[in-house]
């Protein structure tokens, strides 16, 4: 059977953050400038239009001041007008007075040869402002209807003034060119400033990327630079991952080296036992048990997960309960009493496998030697966790030797004695402390202290 092993697909970069931010800022800036420019242009156009309507209204008032009616109700206008443009043909400003009762109209000399669309027949007191078209030309128009009283008679008149929009459009076009020139220049300057600011703001990310590449190539051991608060957590976690991985590799390397070295002696004994057939079976049994203990010890050391900053918090009470329930079945004939003092919500960032390995070994060791009672106590104070496991057995006569060999100094209870040293290695991998002492019952006391970073 052939097994094809393929490497996992490489993570492809999804574009540059700097490019994304610049494009996003450019889109927002352009949208803002277009909206602001359109609003300013409309506001200016309305303002200019209103100003021109005011001027047309003022011209109507001037015409009202000069207009007169003869005794028959006919309209009389002076030869000279107060507005010079009204006397200049095709000047762009045109006036009309409509007298419907006499079927007559007066138009300013500026209308010579033209027929502007003057509004007619407005009600008395009515003002009208509008934009009118005639052919290809457009006009701004203001008109006012009056009832002219002359003695006992009242004559309806309509005054209207038109202005060609050529000057109006020219003024708007000039403002538009100036407005968009300045807005475009301001937009370019803002984009340049944003590009520079983004380059300065993202410089720490580029720097940490360079440091990570140097870590990968072995040029440096960890991320060493000082970074802003937003990135400091990332660089700290990266350093933790790097240190954990190196510690794990070191544990595996040391465990393999120690395993190879530790197996040399049992193998040499087995080799020598081949020359003594009478004792071969006993020697093989002893050395196989010894090698089994060595292998379990080294595998336990190598499998320790180590400090687990990124492991999810593990509730400790269920772990203690499961171990105690298992031990109650294993040592049911001894009728031991187990006490667990642990808050139900107490949790710790600890690998579940390491937790069962540590507490399982310690509680099993306490149950082997207990006369009738085993107690486990877990207390958290700030970032410090203390776990105490005690029994009422004979206790430790030599704590250092017990840690080295992993057993009580009395060899009457079955077991190859790997437990305590495996526990000590796992606790050390988590940066904790393990202490052996005498309990208040006179038996053994094992205290583990872990501290979070």
Element layout with pairings:
Blueprint lengths: L16 H50 L1 E2 L5 E2 L16 E7 L4 E4 L19 E8 L2 E14 L2 E12 L1 H36 L1 H15 L11 H45 L6 H24 L9 E3 H15 L6 E5 L5 E3 L2 H18 L3 E9 L2 E8 L7 H7 L13 H11 L3 E6 L5 E8 L2
Helix pairs in contact: 1-2, 4-5, 5-9, 6-7, 7-9
Description:
This protein has 453 residues and is of the alpha+beta class. It has nine helices and 14 strands. It has a five-stranded antiparallel sheet with strand order 4-3-7-6-5. Strands 9-11-12-14-13 form a five-stranded mixed sheet. A two-stranded antiparallel ribbon has the order 1-2. Strand 1 and strand 2 (75-76) form a beta hairpin. Helix 1 packs antiparallel against helix 2 (166-201) and helix 6 (316-330) packs parallel to helix 7 (352-369). The radius of gyration is 50 Å and the shape is rod-shaped. The two termini are 48 Å apart. The relative contact order is 0.06.
């Amino acid at each position: 059977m052939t097994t094809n092993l393929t490497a996992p697909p490489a993570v492809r970069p999804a574009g540059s953050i700097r490019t994304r931010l610049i494009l996003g800022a450019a889109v927002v800036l352009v949208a803002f400038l277009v909206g602001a420019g359109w609003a300013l242009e409309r506001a200016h156009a309305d303002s200019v239009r209103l100003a021109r309507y005011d001027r047309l209204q003022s011209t109507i008032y001037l015409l009202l001041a000069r207009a007169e009616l003869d005794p028959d109700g006919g309209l009389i206008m002076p030869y000279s007008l107060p507005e010079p443009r009204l006397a200049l043909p095709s000047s762009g400003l045109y006036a009309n007075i409509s007298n419907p009762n006499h079927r007559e109209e007066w138009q300013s000399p500026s209308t010579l040869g033209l027929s502007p669309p003057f509004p007619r027949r407005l009600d008395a007191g009515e003002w009208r402002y509008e934009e009118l078209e005639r052919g290809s030309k457009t006009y701004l128009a203001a008109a006012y209807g009056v009832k002219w009283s002359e003695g006992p008679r009242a004559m309806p008149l309509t005054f209207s003034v038109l202005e060609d929009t050529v000057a109006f459009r020219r003024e708007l076009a000039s403002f538009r060119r100036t407005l968009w020139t300045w807005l475009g220049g301001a937009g370019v300057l803002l984009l340049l400033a944003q590009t520079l600011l983004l380059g300065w703001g993202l410089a720490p990310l580029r720097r940490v990327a360079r440091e990570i590449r140097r870590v990968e190539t072995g040029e440096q051991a960890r991320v060493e630079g000082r970074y802003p608060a937003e990135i400091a957590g990332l660089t700290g976690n990266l350093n933790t991952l790097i240190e954990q991985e190196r510690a794990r590799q070191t544990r595996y390397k040391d465990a393999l080296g120690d395993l190879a070295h530790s197996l040399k002696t049992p193998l040499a004994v087995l080799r020598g036992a081949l020359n003594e057939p009478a004792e071969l079976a006993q020697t093989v049994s002893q050395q196989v048990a010894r090698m089994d203990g060595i292998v379990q010890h080294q595998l336990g050391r190598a499998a320790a997960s180590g400090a687990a900053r990124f492991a999810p918090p593990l509730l400790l009470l269920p772990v203690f309960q499961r171990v105690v329930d298992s031990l109650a079945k294993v040592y049911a004939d001894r009728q031991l009493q187990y006490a667990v003092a642990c808050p139900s919500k107490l949790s710790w960032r600890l690998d579940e496998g390491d937790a069962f390995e540590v507490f399982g070994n310690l509680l099993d060791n306490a149950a082997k030697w207990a006369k009738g009672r085993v107690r486990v106590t877990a207390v958290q104070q700030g970032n410090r966790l203390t776990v105490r496991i005690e029994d009422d057995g004979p206790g430790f006569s030599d704590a250092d030797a017990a840690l080295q060999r992993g057993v009580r100094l009395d060899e009457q209870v079955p077991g190859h004695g790997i437990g305590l040293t495996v526990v000590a290695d796992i606790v050390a991998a988590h940066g904790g402390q393990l202490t052996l002492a005498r309990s208040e019952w006179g038996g053994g006391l094992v205290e583990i202290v872990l501290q979070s970073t």
